[in-house]
């Protein structure tokens, strides 16, 4: 592995990662954790970096500030956090960790679906704040999940995992829309996106953020949802337009929603979404469990060490740099 001035290459982490992963990296590299993820901080620290492990959005021009960078590794799946085209133009390998947090996200989807349907959080707050009210005023008037219809937009790792649990665990009918025709081993009925929104009791967004998916779920599709249907977004905030969603929730035109991701993260204080009824908000944690953090950390460390040894990382997403 080529040496930096003090004998070891420098790996910059945008955020802390699992301690075992840091230990693995430190056997071969110096590790620096950014004190914050402000773009100026990341640009400044990138100046000396040989490798960058990414858990936060990077500025588009980060590579202009990282003359010695030899590889970018995404601690997770979504590639919208990294300037992929710029890295490819500079022949810098980019790798990610497909499947590393799939189960965590699928379990989150189930938790959100159950809470939106059964209202455990709401009932807990009511019991503590108001006391024990007559059962009929507290009863959940929503249908059971079993036998209802789930719609999944994006039938990749997460979509497939959710479909498996929904069919085997809940006995749901599952509809799906994806870029390539997919049935997830026959578990999913492929349908056009309009049908997905019209016929589903719950819609899960599980596709990447791309130019095609940005703003895809707007007033048109939200307006097609059934009155008691719920929307769960675990993918990326900009795929779902916040204003028409807030309008629909406030007017009671849909049954509820759960959002783990937002166009602006952190979701700014005072944002309209905080006041919407029947809305569960979580701070981009669907893919984060003790299990997935260890898997992602060790996976990212191994990919980075491969890059620093001059090897092609196993999950490189811009393989064309090796053939050009
Ligand atoms: N909230 C969180 O903590 C997490 C969020 N995520 C987000 O979830 C996304 C999906 O993750 P994952 O399932 O692991 O990724 P995958 O790449 O396995 O799956 C994404 C799927 O979306 C499909 N897709 C792409 N474009 C469209 C489109 N325009 N319309 C419909 N489907 C489309 C892809 O189709 P095709 O197969 O044809 O390419 C693919 O099947 C990630 O990109 C990331 O942004 C991921 C992990 C954690
Ligand atoms: O893996 C991803 O894309 C995530 O969003 C995890 O935080």
UniProtKB/TrEMBL annotation:
<dbReference type="GO" id="GO:0005829">
    <property type="term" value="C:cytosol"/>
</dbReference>
<dbReference type="InterPro" id="IPR036291">
    <property type="entry name" value="NAD(P)-bd_dom_sf"/>
</dbReference>
<dbReference type="Pfam" id="PF02826">
    <property type="entry name" value="2-Hacid_dh_C"/>
</dbReference>
<feature type="domain" description="D-isomer specific 2-hydroxyacid dehydrogenase NAD-binding">
    <location>
        <begin position="111"/>
        <end position="286"/>
    </location>
</feature>
<dbReference type="InterPro" id="IPR006139">
    <property type="entry name" value="D-isomer_2_OHA_DH_cat_dom"/>
</dbReference>
<keyword id="KW-0560">Oxidoreductase</keyword>
<dbReference type="Pfam" id="PF00389">
    <property type="entry name" value="2-Hacid_dh"/>
</dbReference>
<keyword id="KW-0670">Pyruvate</keyword>
<dbReference type="InterPro" id="IPR029753">
    <property type="entry name" value="D-isomer_DH_CS"/>
</dbReference>
<dbReference type="InterPro" id="IPR050223">
    <property type="entry name" value="D-isomer_2-hydroxyacid_DH"/>
</dbReference>
<dbReference type="InterPro" id="IPR006140">
    <property type="entry name" value="D-isomer_DH_NAD-bd"/>
</dbReference>
<protein>
    <submittedName>
        <fullName>Hydroxypyruvate reductase</fullName>
        <ecNumber>1.1.1.81</ecNumber>
    </submittedName>
</protein>
<feature type="domain" description="D-isomer specific 2-hydroxyacid dehydrogenase catalytic">
    <location>
        <begin position="11"/>
        <end position="318"/>
    </location>
</feature>
<dbReference type="GO" id="GO:0051287">
    <property type="term" value="F:NAD binding"/>
</dbReference>
<comment type="similarity">
    <text>Belongs to the D-isomer specific 2-hydroxyacid dehydrogenase family.</text>
</comment>
<dbReference type="GO" id="GO:0016618">
    <property type="term" value="F:hydroxypyruvate reductase [NAD(P)H] activity"/>
</dbReference>
<dbReference type="GO" id="GO:0030267">
    <property type="term" value="F:glyoxylate reductase (NADPH) activity"/>
</dbReference>
């Amino acid at each position: 592995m080529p040496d930096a001035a003090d004998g070891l290459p420098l790996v910059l982490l945008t955020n802390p990662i699992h301690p075992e992963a840091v230990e693995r990296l430190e056997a071969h590299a110096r590790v620096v954790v950014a004190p914050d993820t402000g773009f100026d901080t990341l640009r400044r620290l990138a100046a000396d970096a040989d490798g960058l492990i990414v858990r936060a959005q990077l500025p588009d021009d980060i590579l202009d500030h990282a003359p010695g960078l030899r590889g970018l590794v995404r601690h997770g799946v979504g590639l919208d956090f990294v300037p992929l085209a710029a890295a490819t133009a500079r022949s810098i390998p980019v790798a990610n960790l497909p499947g590393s947090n799939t189960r965590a996200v699928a379990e989150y989807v189930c938790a959100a679906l159950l809470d939106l349907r059964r209202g455990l959080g709401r009932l807990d707050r009511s019991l503590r704040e108001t006391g024990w009210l007559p059962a009929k005023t507290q009863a959940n008037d929503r249908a059971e999940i079993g036998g209802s219809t789930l719609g999944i937009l994006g039938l990749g790792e997460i979509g497939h995992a959710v479909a498996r649990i929904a069919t085997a665990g809940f006995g749901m009918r599952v509809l799906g829309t994806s870029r390539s025709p997919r049935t997830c081993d026959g578990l999913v009925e492929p349908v056009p996106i309009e049908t997905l929104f019209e016929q589903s009791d719950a819609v899960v967004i599980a596709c990447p953020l791309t130019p095609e998916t940005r703003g895809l779920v707007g007033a048109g599709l939200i307006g097609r949802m059934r009155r008691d249907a719920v929307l769960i977004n675990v993918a990326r905030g900009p795929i779902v337009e916040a204003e028409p969603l807030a309008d629909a929730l406030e007017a009671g035109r849909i049954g509820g929603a759960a959002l783990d991701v937002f166009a602006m993260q952190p979701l700014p204080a005072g944002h309209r979404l905080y006041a919407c009824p029947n809305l569960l908000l979580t701070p981009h944690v669907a893919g984060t469990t003790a299990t997935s953090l260890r898997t992602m950390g060790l996976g990212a460390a191994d990919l980075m060490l491969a890059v620093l040894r001059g090897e092609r990382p196993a999950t490189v997403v811009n393989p064309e740099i090796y053939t050009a």
